[in-house]
What we know:
The chain is mostly beta strands. Helix content is 9%, strand content 60%.
Amino acid sequence: MRIKNFFLWLLLVLCNYGLSSQTITNDWRDEAKNIERFERQIIDTLKEGHWTTWYPDGTKESEGEYINGKAVGQWKYWYPNGNLESVLNVENGPCWLYHQNGKISMKWENTEGKRNGMLEEYDSVGQLIRRIPFIMGIKHGFSESFYPSGQKSFEGTYKNDSLDGKAIWYYPQGNKEMEGNLHNELQEGWWVFYHPSGLKGSEGEFIKGKRNGEWIFYYETGEKWREGEYLNDQRQGHWITFYETGAKFQEGDFVNDKETGLWVNYYDNGKINYRGYFVDGQMDGLWEAWYEDGKMRYQHHYSLGSPHGKWIYFYPNGKKKYEGYYLNGKKNGLWIEYYENGAIESKTNYKEGRKNGTAYFYVANGLLVRQQNFLNDDPHGDFVSFHPNGEKANEGAYYKGIPIGIWKFYDENGNLVMSKTYSNSFPSGKNAKTTKKN
């Protein structure tokens, strides 16, 4: 009786509020919605009997029964567009969820308020995509999932709410993707992974969801690609990678998933391609490489992953291609590049990885074609270039990458053909005057 009197009082309060605000309505539903919203905020613990809620535009949102503040019986919910969203029998009976287009999204049975029996899930066009068995709210039994095409994507078994036992995943075309055993949803025991063609991609053992022991990986052709051991998901010990022919491609050791010690890479004829050392997963010390005919290709030095020390690279004919030094990962000092005939192509000085000082550039016959100065990679100071016959082509100067002063241009006979004067060119670089010789 007190609850009834409270609602009568509440209705009078809301009506009087509407009159004092000079808001007049003939739609009793507006007042009902006001009451419902007020109840949600003030007397949520008093929910009893039949309840209905609406969206702000007046579209029905939900309806069902409460007893002692608890939802009971059948409840219905609607999308804002008015389509049915779900029908739920809270305690006992069937339950349905719907897509906005009206197609069933999910269905199951409730027993004493818990899912019981097979739950089925569908996509928006009505295709079954998942089946999960329940026993009084706990997933238990054989389950399977499907691609939109209807092809099975997964099958496995639940035990006490967790996947446990044999499980198989499939590619969309039907071939197995992977298979193995699960325990409490963690991979356990021998597992096999497949290429889409159906041939093995890799196989090995899991312990509590982590790779352990020997693992073998395969090319899509079925030939062995790589083999080695894991310990708790980290590569350990000696690992070998193979060409599809079966010849070794690479080998070396791991400690806690990081390369360590000597690593060697091979050509498919068995000759060494390159080799060098790792420390804690980083290249360290001398690394050497050879061409397939056995001639030296390069000698590079590293310090814990960074280039450090002398670097030299050779052409296939045995002549040098470049040589210079690194300091803590940056070029430092004189670097020389060579043409394949052995002639010098350029000589450049570096400081902390940037060009500094005078650089010289040559053509393959040994003639100087350009000489210029740099400051922290920018042209800075005198610049001069030469024609192939050795005659001067142009000369001038830069200031931090910007041409300054008088620049002169010559023909192949050494005759001045044009001069260009840069006035106040730093930082603008605009030409003040250009003079051509007739």
